[in-house]
Write a structure and sequence with these properties.
Length: 157
């Protein structure tokens, strides 16, 4: 572009000034692009981390002191990056695992939707399988319609 300008106007003084001005702003442009890309990547990593926080993980230990292995039991609970997510995980007197999952605070209608795990109390075997005596056959859903089920304890018998 500068060669075209020079061939038409024969003005090397202004070409040099414009060229120096363009070169002077390259570090600033690189810095701005770097900051924007860094912010986008940081946001993407935060979103990925939040998605991983909204899952139930099963772990095993041979000595009770360190984890020998782990596996994701439920990792399909939609995360909405708001409150009312997984609230409590408890082993009940029937030796089943109970997971209290809030509605996500964005759309309370999901608490009644049987295809969505939000707004439910989920019940599963300790290995992550669905108990055969759950109210909805083949589903983790034990109870539905909850906004923010905080307490996960059971009274002593």
């Amino acid at each position: 572009m500068y060669l075209l300008y020079f061939s038409i106007f024969q003005d090397s003084y202004h070409i040099a000034i414009y060229l120096l001005g363009d070169i002077a702003f390259i570090p600033l442009e690189v810095l701005l692009v770097t900051l924007v890309v860094n912010e986008l990547l940081s946001h993407r990593e935060k979103v990925a981390r939040l998605d991983k926080l909204n899952m139930v993980i099963g772990a095993s230990s041979s000595d009770g002191l360190k984890m020998d292995s782990h596996v994701a039991i439920i990792d399909s609970t939609p995360s909405v990056k708001a409150a009312h997510q997984i609230q409590a995980v408890t082993v009940g007197p029937d030796k089943k695992l109970y997971v209290n999952v809030g509605d996500g605070m964005i759309d309370p209608e999901v608490a009644q939707d049987e295809s969505d795990l939000r707004g439910k109390i989920l019940r599963m075997e300790l290995d992550g399988s669905v108990p055969p005596d759950n109210p909805i056959k083949g589903s983790y859903v034990f109870a539905k319609g909850f906004r923010n089920p905080l307490w996960g304890g059971f009274p002593k018998e």
